[in-house]
């Protein structure tokens, strides 16, 4: 029979509430505890439903049924969600956090190290290294990492930058845009044994031993539109070799196309003979 608590906590559901509770009870994405609470409320619907019977059917304690039955009657569906818990009090106040961040940004370790480590900051500030790591992550501070940058002294840098980017993004009609560069000091290695081809269950294999054949320089021109590369390997990377590579590009490109070569400021690219050859082909 329903007891006094049951009679004062009668669960009456509207059609909308019942549909939402059924969806919650059947959901596989919601937390299991929330689905169980929805099933408790559905089982308690009606004036003559005892919490003891609901607990026996669901295999849980009667006090659990009473708790969520009362929460639903008082707060409806929002009462089935967990309330905010205060948790453990903070042991590091805002002033100590500010000290940690300021020390990370504006000081260097006294032992001559190039950057702070979590253990070094922990010893310096009296905060545990795990807490230091959490605050560094929260503020996106990475004192162990360095990124390089380059400032151009060319007064026409902005104009040249816009011209180069414009060629990449919007090349002219009947034109070919090539990114040209060289990679020197490439080791020319030859394996002492033939390569083992890839097969079912094992990867391609090469012997560990090799024979050195000195170094070579790779000249390459990348077609930015289709990703194709025109390449040559030469023994040196003087202006003579670069000029020969430009002649190879000139022969490989159809004559009806204008060629735009984008290169860096390497000395061999600006040699007078290279400039003279380019001036004959504006």
Descriptive report:
The protein is of the alpha+beta class. It has 3 domains: 4-80, no CATH class; 94-138; 157-279, Nucleotidyltransferase, domain 5. Helix content is 41%, strand content 15%. It has helices at 4-8, 15-26, 32-43, 51-58, 62-75, 94-106, 118-125, 129-138, 157-169, 239-252, 272-279; strands spanning 175-191, 210-223, 229-234, 258-262. The chain has a 4-stranded mixed β-sheet. Strand 2 (210-223) and strand 3 (229-234) form a beta hairpin. Helix 7 (118-125) packs across helix 8 (129-138). The chain is elongated, with a radius of gyration of 37 Å. 11% of the residues are buried. The model has no long low-confidence stretch (mean pLDDT 90).
Described by the principal axes of the CA atoms, the overall outline is: elongated
How many distinct domains? 3
The helical percent reads 40-55%
Oligomer: single chain
Give the name of the CATH architecture of the largest domain: 2-Layer Sandwich
By CATH reckoning, the class of the largest domain would read Alpha Beta
Please give the largest β-sheet. Answer: 4 strands, mixed
Order of strands across the main sheet = 3-2-1-4
Radius of gyration computed on alpha carbons: 37 Å
Which sequence of SSEs, written as H and E, runs from N to C? HHHHHHHHHEEEHEH
Sequence-ordered SSE layout with sheet pairings:
Blueprint: H1 4-8, H2 15-26, H3 32-43, H4 51-58, H5 62-75, H6 94-106, H7 118-125, H8 129-138, H9 157-169, E1 175-191, E2 210-223, E3 229-234, H10 239-252, E4 258-262, H11 272-279
Parallel strand pairs: 1-4
Antiparallel strand pairs: 1-2, 2-3
Helix pairs in contact: 2-3, 4-5, 7-8
């Amino acid at each position: 029979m329903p007891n006094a608590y049951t009679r004062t906590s009668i669960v009456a559901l509207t059609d909308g509430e019942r549909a939402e509770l059924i969806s919650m009870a059947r959901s596989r994405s919601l937390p299991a505890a929330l689905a169980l609470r929805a099933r408790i409320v559905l089982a308690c619907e009606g004036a003559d439903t005892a919490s003891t019977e609901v607990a026996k059917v669901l295999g849980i304690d009667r006090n659990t049924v009473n708790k969520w039955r009362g929460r639903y009657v008082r707060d409806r569906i929002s009462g089935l969600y967990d309330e905010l818990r205060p948790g453990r009090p903070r042991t590091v106040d805002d002033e100590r956090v500010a000290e940690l961040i300021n020390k990370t940004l504006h000081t260097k370790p006294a032992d001559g190290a190039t950057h702070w480590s979590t253990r070094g900051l922990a010893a310096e500030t009296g905060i545990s290294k795990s807490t230091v790591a959490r605050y560094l992550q929260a503020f996106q501070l990475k004192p162990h990492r360095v990124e390089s940058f380059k400032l151009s002294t060319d007064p026409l840098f902005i104009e040249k930058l816009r011209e180069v980017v414009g060629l990449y993004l919007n090349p002219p009609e009947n034109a070919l845009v090539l990114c040209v560069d060289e990679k020197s000091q490439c080791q020319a290695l030859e394996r002492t044994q033939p390569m083992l081809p890839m097969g079912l269950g094992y990867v391609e294999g090469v012997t560990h031993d090799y024979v050195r054949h000195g170094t070579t320089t790779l000249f390459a021109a990348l077609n930015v539109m289709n990703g194709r590369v025109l390449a040559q390997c030469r023994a040196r990377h003087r202006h003579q070799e670069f000029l020969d590579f430009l002649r190879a590009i000139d022969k490989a490109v159809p004559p009806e196309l204008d060629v735009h070569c984008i290169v860096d400021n390497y000395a061999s690219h600006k040699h007078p003979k290279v400039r003279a050859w380019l001036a004959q082909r504006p």
